Each structure stands twice: as C-alpha cells, then as structure tokens.
Amino acid sequence: MAGISFTRRAGLAAGSAIATAALIGARGSAAQGAPVKVGELNSYARMAAFSVPYRNAIQLAVDGINRAGGVMGGRPLEFVFRDDGSTPGDAVRVAEDLLTREGCAFLAGTFLSNVGLAVSDLANQRKKLFLATEPLTDALTMAQGNRYTWRLRPSTYMQTRMLTEAARGRTTRRWAIVAPNYEYGQSAAANFKRLITASIPGAEIVAEQYPALGRVDAGATVGALAQARPDGIFNVLFGPDLTAFVREGNTRGLFERRFVLSMLTGEPEYLIPLGDETPEGWIVTGYPWEQITDGPHKAYIDAYRARFNDTPRKGSLLGYVTAQVVANLLNKANSLDSEVLVEAFKDLRTDTVVGNVTMRALDQQGTMGTWVGETVLRGRQGAMRNARYADGADYLFPEAEVRAARRG
Amino acid sequence: MDVGFIVVQSLSGLASASALFIIASGLTLVFGVTRIVNFAHGSFYMLGAYIAVTVVPWLLEIDRSPTLFFTGVLISAIAVGVLGVLMELLLLRRLYKVPELFQLLATFGVVLMVQDAVLKIWGPVDIPGPRAPGLRHGVEILGQRFPAYELFLIVIGPAVLGLLWLLMHRTRFGILIRAATRDREMVGALGVNQAMLFTGTLFLGAALAGLGGALQIPRVSASSQMDLSIITEAFVVTVIGGMGSVPGAFLAAVLIGQLQAFGVLVFPKITLVLVFLLMAAVLVVKPWGLLGRPEAAAGRAALPEGILAVRGFGRVEKLIAGLAIAAMLAVPVFGDAYTVKVATEVLIFALAAFSLNFLVGNGGIVSFGHAAYFGLGAYAAGLLVTKGGLPMEPALLAAPIAGGLFAALFGFFVVRLSGIYLAMLTLAFAQIAYAVCFQWVEVTGGDNGVVGVWPSAWAASRQVYHYVVAACAILAIIALRRVVYAPFGATLRAARDSEQRADAIGIDVRTHRWLAFTLAGGAAGLAGGLYAFSKGSIDPTLLAIPLSVDFLAMILLGGIQTVMGAVAGAAAFHTIKDIFMPLTDFWRFLLGASIIALVLVFPRGLAGAFAGWRA
Amino acid sequence: MTLLAVEGLNKAFGGVVAARDVTFALSAGEMLAIIGPNGAGKSTTFNMVGGQLRPDTGRVVLAGQDITGQPPRQVCRMGVGRTFQVAQTFLSMSVVGNVQMALIAHHGRTRDMVADAARLYRDDALALLARVGMEGEADRPIGELAYGDVKRVELAIALAAAPRLLLMDEPTAGMAPRERAALMQLTADIARGGGIGVLFTEHDMDAVFAHADRILVLVRGEVIAEGTPEEVRANPEVQRVYLGTSGHKAALRARRAAHG
Questions:
Q1: Å between B2 CA and nearest CA of chain C
Q2: List of chain A residues whose C-beta atoms are within 8 Å of the C-beta of residue B438
Q3: What is the pLDDT of residues B81-90, one digit of tens each?
Q4: Which phi-psi region, left, alpha or beta, contains residue B264 (left: φ > 0; alpha: ψ -120 to 50)?
C-alpha cells in the first residue's frame, strides 16, 4: 500500500507541477537530451475539424512541459504526428512507420473506431503501448481489449449512460432512436435500449432509423420518426447529418413537445455549425468551455485562444489532457519499456485541467468525463445551459461486465 | 399508415429526387458527349455548396430577399461552370487522344486536389448556409407539416428538365449535344468545332452540379465530404436512367427518391444498398438502363484501349524484372523494418493490380469494383483464422477460392453487359458485398471488422512474412502473366478487339470472359488474404469504392497497354502515397497533383512510356 | 449435293417485314450471290444464315443438320466461315496472329492457359496466308495494312475454320476496283478448288456477274428471281424493278471483261 500511495503521490505531484508549469509558462530548466517520442496518428485530413484543434492543444501542452523540464528527469517530450489515412490498412502501416523508422516509444491517437481497433491489435502483436484517445467503441476496452491498449475518452457506453441518467425521473415512455449506421451509432443505440429502462421503467422503443453516415435523407428520416409518434428521441447523429436532421426537424416540427437526448451535440465541433438553428432544451453531452471561469482549465483555454486565435474545441481539451496523461505516465514509469509502461498505466492518476483522471486497470479505461447540459440559443449561436461535469469514474462499465467481456 | 403521411413521405422523396436529378443530369450530359466518366462531378457539387454558403450570406446582407438568394445560387452555379471549363481547357483537352480511362484517372486526381483545396480555403468546420428567405416555413399538407423549400425543390427538378429539353431541341448547341451523344465521331465528321462543343458541355455539366450543390445549402451544411457522398448516387441515377439520357436520369431519380423515402420505413439500415440492388436489377434486365441506347455499333476500326502487341521480355526487360525480383527478395536483408512492411504491401497491391489489368487491359472488362474480390478474399482468410480457428496456411488457400467463387457469382451477370454499364454493375456488386460485410455484424464484426488475423508463428516476423508474400505474389503474377501469353489470354484480347469476329470464329465470348473474371477474382482474393495477414485485421474498407479506385489508379498509372504496367503502377502509386502522407495533412492534394502530372507527362502510363522509349 | 438449304425464312422487325418466305439452296463448290436494292433484306437473310439473327419462322439446314437459330459460334463450328461488310479483325494482333487465333479457336484450345499462343499453329497460319497471298505481311500489325489486304486476311481467318460454307457480306465494299476483281477471283478459286460453297451479297454488279454461279434477287424481303447470271439478266421483272439501265451496263461491262 505504501508503495502505491507513494507512486500515486509522486505522480500527482509531477502531474500538477507540469500542469502549472505549462500554464504559467514557468521557465524552469528546459529539457535536454534525447527526446522521448510518442507516435500520434489521427485523421488529420478527413476529420480535420476535430483533429487539428486536438493536435494544436497537444503541441501547446508539450511546449509547456518541455519548458518546465520535460519528462523522465529532463528529456524533452516529442509527439510525432501522422495522418492515419482514415482506413485500418493505412493506419497500421503508419503505425509501423512510427514504431520502427521514427523510433517512437509508443502510439497514441486515432479517431475512427475501426482504425483504433486495428492499431490496438497491432500494438498487442508488437507489444507496444497504445493510448487510444478518440475512438469511442466499447469493444476497444471490452471484448477486444488487450494488455497494451488504453483509452482516455469516455466511451460510447459511458456517454450514453450519462444521458440516460440525466433522463431519470422523466415520464417519457415512447422513444425513437436515430443513429448513423456504423459501429458508434449502432452501439450507442444498443446501450440506450439497455440503459433507458433503468432510468425510466417501462420505456419502449417505437422507431429506429439508421441513415448511412454522411448521407442522411433528412426529410424521409424525419417523416418516418414523426410517424411513430414518440415522446422522446435519442439522437446519435453528428456533423453534416446532424445539421440536415435538425433543420428538417425544426421545419417539420419534429422536436416540438418532445424530449430529446443527443450524443456529442454540445461539443463545439457540432454545435457551431448548427448556429441559430440550435434546438432548445435538448439534453446533450458537450464542452461548454465558455463557462469555465477559473483554475488551470481556464488558464489552458486562455493560452489556447491566445496562441491559435481560435476558440477551443472538444478535440483541444482531449489533446491537452492526452499530453498531460502521457507526461505523467512517462515520469512515473521512467522507462520506455512497454511492460514497465503498461504497469505504470495501471490506476495511474493524473491531475489534469479537467481534474483527476485515473486509468482504471480493470478495463484500461480512463475516467475523463464530459459535460452534460441542456441546449439553449444565445443570440445566433447555440450553447449549453445548466451544464455539469460528469466524472467518467461514475459511469464506467460495472466491474462484473468488464470481467465477463474481457475473459475471452 | 394514414394517407397524409404517405403523401408527405412521397413528397420528401420527390424533393430528394429533384436535387439528385439536377446533379445527375449534368453528369449524364458530360458522359453522353465526351464519354468521360467524370469522378470530379461530385467535387463540382461540393464547390457549388461552398461557393453558395460564401456568396449568398454576403448578398443577403444587402437585403434578405428571395431574389438575392436565388441570384446567389445562380452565381454559384455559373462560377462552378467556369471551373468546369477550366478543367476542360487545362486538363481534359490534352487527354482526348489518349484512352478514355485516363481521363477518368485525371478527374480522380482533380477530386483529391479539390478535397484538400476546400479544406484549405474554407477550413475543416462545416459551414451551414442560410435558409431561403420566404421559404423558411412549413406548409400544412393533410395534417402534416412539410417544408416550403422542399415544395420549391419539387418544382425546380421538372423545371430544369424542361429547360434542358428546350435547350436540346431548340438550340444548335443542344442539337449538337444530342448528335454527339448518339454518335460522337459523326459530329467531328460534320465539321463541328468539337473543342467548343466539349467546353460548352463541361460548362453546362459543371454548372448543373454547382446548381445542385447551391440549392442544397438551406438543407445541409457545406462539408468537405459532400463530394464522395453524392458521386456514387449520381452515377447510380445516371446508369439506371441510361448514360446520356436526361429524361432517363429524371425517371431514375424519382424512382430512387421514392425507394429511399419508403425504404427507410421497411429497411431502416440498408437504404443505401437498396439503391445498388435496384441498379443491379435494372442492369440485369435492361443492359443499357431504362432509357439508354446501346453504344453506337462497333463498326469502326479503332485500336482497343488495352494491351496491344504482347511481346516476350527482351534482354532489358528481363534484366529489369530480374532486378525487381532480386530487390524485393533483398529488402528484408538490407532494409529496415518499415521498408520491409512497405515492400510487402507493394507486392500485394502489385498482384491485385495485375489481376485487375488482366481484366481491363487484356480483356477490355473495366471493373470499378475489383476491391470486392480482394476484400472477400481477406474476409474469408480472416474469418477462418479468427472464427474458424484455422491456421494461416489453409486460410490463405481459402482466400483465392472465396475471391474466385464470388467473382464467378457476380461475373455471371457482369459479362452480359459491356462498357460503362458493365463497370457500374461491378460497382453495384462491390457495394452489395460491402454492405453485407458492413451490416452482418455478428459474423463480420460490422465496420469495426475483426482483429487478430496474424500469421502463423513461423511467419510472424515481418521479414519471414515478406518472403511468404513475395513467394505467393510473384508466383501468382508469373502464372497470370503466362495466361496472358497463352491462348486463353489471346482469346480475351480477340474478344475485346472484335466481339463479332471472335463469335464468328467459334469463340464463346461470354464464357471466356466469365472465366477471366473468376480467375482475376481469385488472384485478387489471394492478394486480399495476404493483405489481411499483413495488417492483422479485416474491415469493410477492404471492399470499398476508394480501394477499387486505387487499384484503377495503379493500373492506369502503370499503363493498361502493357502487360507489366500494373506492377509498375502499383509500386509508383504506393510509393507516392507513402512519401506524401507523412509530409503534410494535404497529402491528398499532392497525390492528386502527382497523378495529374503523370497522366499529362506519360499519357500511356509509366510502362507505356517505357515501351515507347524502347521502340 | 445440297450443302445449304434455306427453307421459308421469315423475319419482321416491328411491323416491317425484312424477309418473307425466303427459300434457296446452295451446293458445295458453288458461288451464290444475293443481290437487291438497299433494304431488300439481303443482310437480314445473311444474318439469319450466319446465326446473328434468329428467324421468326423457317429453317436453315447445313449439310443435313438444322442450324436454325444457333448462335454464330455454333454455326462456325458446323463449318461456316464468315467475312463482314466492314472487315472484322483483331486489331491488337499481327496478321499471322489473327489467323493463329482463328486456328486456336478452330482446334478448341481457347481455354489453354499454359501454351504460348504466339507459337501455336504458326505454320498452318502462314500456309493459309500464302493461300490468300499475304504471307509476306505475316508479322506486320494488321492495323497497318491497306484495306484490300485486310479483306484478304479476313478471308484467311474465315478459312482457318476449314469451312464447308463461306458467308461473305459485301466482300468488296470499300475496296478499289482493281482489288475487287482480284479478291473475287481469289475467292472463286479457293471455293471451286476446295469444294467450298460461297454465299455472298454484293453491290458491285461486275463482281456478281463475273463470278457468281447463280444469283438470287431479293426485293422487299422476297425472292423475285433466281438463276444463272444469264437467266437473271434476262428476267424481265428483274430488269424492271432492280437492274434498270445501270444493270444492263454492268452486265455489258462484265461480259466485256470476261471476253477481254
């Protein structure tokens, strides 16, 4: 116990020192020696709206960390960024490049779930650590989890559960689901069906629509949903599909007097394009950065805005936290050996700008949370009201389920 | 279901149909006149939307009037038309003398460049357009609310059809378009300025795509993935209607609009496949689409687009082939781990591309869906290993068998068609296979795919697996090359050169093509199996359109007129991609630019240029 | 002995009758010409014999075997060689390669995936080329040849199937006058020497009257006359509806050519 508490404290101290240093730009002894390289691959070309702010924030954090003395006793931290080509085939080749030619100690990143899973399996095969940052699929930490793969962001299950628990106490019985037809959408829908009855006993699903990703036929979809006369709608659409769906739904009155739970809609990436069409009163997960008024989080936001002349996105926050967690991991492990890194990751606590994030050893899932709130229109722009930070630690998969899923 | 709902749902279908028709009509016109399969048509659509979300709000600042809104839409359409003219003048005009497929490759280069140009100019964030003033509201129809703007769209589709009809029947330009669609060479013979006709058609086609995009801005936000989401659908509409037929495109768009509007009620998960199923069904019954005509009789003596004289290797060629094989075998000894990995992939793609060129170059069977057999081979191998518990060796044996069996199944229908219709049917089957792999989650793992497809222990290292791949791929290429030189290969070329003559000397053209399709599918399946084990996973992108297009790009870059061009093309394509991807986020722009440069400098492909230099 | 018997062929496209009760016969070694004005049904009749078109009713019997409605490849295997109005050859191949291809098909080896096609039946192909006087051009790409030479090669291709019957659709179309006579003479020699029946359509009356043993006259899908060149020439109905004065001139020219 003593050992654990010692390392925890050390990690905490290191983490907070780095965070502080990064934020106030303290000029300690700048890092020297061979850099510690982390291979970061992501969909920079295809998912640029998310991934470019993500990369910017990593860069911001890394610069701060290095000014404050780097990692592992003074070595500079370096992220090597690569486009993953948005297909598993390309991503695996890029990952090999990062591990072999670039000499990266381990891998981080990926956006699409299938890319994340393929890289995760490669990491397992090559016995290299992989910190999946963005892919949401539950499979990554459950059925297809492996020793070398860890995930930071709250998974599909966790975010669905945040929403269904926010619906607790409602009387909405008849539910319609609309989700993009791919793994994320399907698994969000499946989680929703499983979890909603816990919040609202007797809830039933009266309609399901699964338009192809990026190709929603909004008119037909809205028509089909309205026809089922649901009391509530669970929406998983995002990006261009969401804009089209919301506009069509607004004009046809689909959302009038209906309770809507919507995944990710409060994230600036998806809220900004909705503009003055943002529907009011949806319960969403998101990132109301403008409501952060103090602490390290505010400092990071100011630093980000100053450096990139842009408002932060959810991607930026994730990138910043990623760099903080990685630095903490390296300091704790003080080795680039994969096995040592994996051991160091187990229950690693990092004090990040969103508070404490622990990498739960059981399913190798981080406890980073997200904000849950209600959409509101402020001027010509959507925002979140009554938002609260839902700590991921409260929404993790039950331990028994994890054990059952990861046994095979 | 009440009547009001059915009416409104059907109106939704009509609104989608109108939008789709406007885009598809441009595509069908361009194809009819120039015979160019214009992949960049989707890019024009996207540009129309982006220009509109820039221009229209600026105009609405002056006055929020419907007039200014539609002025902005028209300006956008015309601007895109001008871009179409630029593409014709700067690029396509230089390519009319080379095989038609190279124009396809050039337009594919344009697609890649436009994607990144849009990201650079407008940024990665989706841009919502303004709603049309005066048409923001909903209209009450039989107790259901329906957007006024969509009622307007329903009207505008037939209006565009009418205007096009007037243009085609009442103007000299239109009459020329119709004449060229029916018989392209006749127009040249009549002394018409063909260059002007083509430029004009490209303007019209691109402007229609731009109009389609600009009209969408009140419904969807402009995003950098609009191009790919529309282009396959536009092709489907064009093909179902009959390539070159504007009324056919209208009919097909209405059919597809209704199919989707009511399809979502019955099959909420597979509406996209429904469209391809419809296309496959239409093509099996009506080989030239609903209102299309058979391609003009092949009475003229034109050199076929494909492998011409097959000669054996001369001394130089033998040396190059020997060196290439030696280099591939030496890579694990001298190269680093990553070079080995890339070399392994080059070998796999070389086999896949070679098998495609066996169809395209040697047989004149242009497949737009060759990745299907590659992917099905990968799935067969991957599923046998992960779900069947078999070791790598028998699984690898199953890959070509699966590729071949599915090629035989799909090919049975495919070889009944010819030309662009054949190509589109291969695409339809590939999409159907893709959809099955995507949707059948219990077995295939859906879009996440299946991981854990790793080689047997003895072949687990990158180096040893490289030799496994080298042995399989090189032997398969040598074997397939042998077939090209054998009577069977000659028979395919004969059938490609003159189907009529081949028939008259007693050749059963269809059966031979069917065999060739199966053989090529088997070879692609083997390549897919090898790929699965090199990546450790399988997923639906292995069957998807982008990979099929990559294969096409490889054989065209290499040159479809030579036997070994596909191998050179695969190596070149993969190398270019591998060089640019780590360099910049805008690697697609550079890849597209390289493709265009290569097409312009080597209009017969790399191997074609080499053959020319040798001669 | 009757090589080809055509019995009561009928064919209509939509409402238009292209062939009505066409009946004729052809013996081995005999040259039978089908003539008639444009749209008389020559090509339709021809394509029904060659298998490109299926007759509505009627029978085509080749050497006692019914081949009605068989596809061209089957008709070919029964011993029918064919040339086309616009020469159909394999443009990507050499002259000899074209003939070799026909020989490969004739010997049923088109599915052979191992042998070297360039070496198969080369000598036989050269011999066939020699028969049409083209052995000197054997290794040139066929696309480089003059059109008259292409027609000769096409004849060699047709002969590769060792046919009992040759179908030649306008064999001299598009050729220079001198080439025409030479090709027709060559065809006649080969047919008579090898006992091969030849059925041909032709616009060029010189060629018809100089080389045909018998002539069939079609007008609006119907046979209006049949007989030797002299009989046909003398037939008043033929003169009235078809030959006219130009026909007379052609006949005169032909006679002169034959005597000169």
A1: 46
A2: 182
A3: 999 999 999 9
A4: alpha
Return the pLDDT at B335: 87
Is it the case that residue A19 has pLDDT exceeding 80?
Answer: no
- The phi, psi pair for B326, rounded to 5°, reads -60, -40
Decide if C178 is inside a domain: no
Tens of pLDDT along A188-230? 999 999 999 999 999 999 999 999 888 889 999 999 999 999 9
Question: What would the pLDDT profile of C222-233 be if each residue is shown by its tens digit?
Answer: 898 899 999 988
8 Å CB contact of C110 and B512: yes
Q: Domain of C49: which CATH number?
A: 3.40.50.300
Q: What domains can you pick out in chain B, each with its CATH number?
A: 3-285 (1.10.3470), 335-614 (1.10.3470)
Domain that holds residue C247: 1-69+164-171+190-260
Query: Is C168 an interface residue toward B (CB < 8 Å)?
Result: no
Cα–Cα dist C31/C202, whole Å: 12
Q: Which helix (H) or strand (E) holds C20?
A: strand C16-27
Q: What is the pLDDT of residues B323-366, one digit of tens each?
A: 999 999 999 998 888 899 999 999 999 999 999 999 999 999 99
Which stretches of chain C score pLDDT less than 70? 1, 241-260
Average pLDDT rounded to a whole number, residues A94-114: 93
Put simply, the answer to whether B309 touches C90 (Cβ < 8 Å) is no
* Chains in touch with C (≥3 Cβ pairs < 8 A): B
Give chain C positions within 8 Å (CB) of B306: 92
Put simply, the answer to whether A223 touches B336 (Cβ < 8 Å) is: no
CB neighbours (10 Å) of residue B338?
Answer: 19
Any contact of B with A, at least 3 CB pairs below 8 A? Answer: yes
In terms of CA atoms, which chain B residue is nearest residue C120? B487
Residue of C nearest to B483 (CA): C113
Of the partner residues B128, B224, B260, the one whose CB lies closest to the CB of residue A275 = B128
**CB-based contact, C186 to chain B, within 8 Å:** no
Write the residue in B506, B508, B515 that is nearest to C161 by C-beta.
Answer: B506
State ipTM. Answer: 0.89
Residues A166-187: pLDDT tens digits? Answer: 999 999 999 999 999 988 999 9
CA pair distance B431, B425, nearest whole angstrom: 10
Burial B517-527 (b: 16+ CB within 10 A, else e): bbbbbbbbbbb
Q: Is A239 on the interface with B (CB under 8 A)?
A: yes
Q: What is the Cα–Cα distance from B237 to B292, expressed in whole angstroms?
A: 12
Per-residue pLDDT at A2 exceeds 50? no
Q: Does domain A2-155+293-369 have CATH number 2.60.40.1220?
A: no
Residue B551 CA to residue B108 CA, distance in Å, equals 12
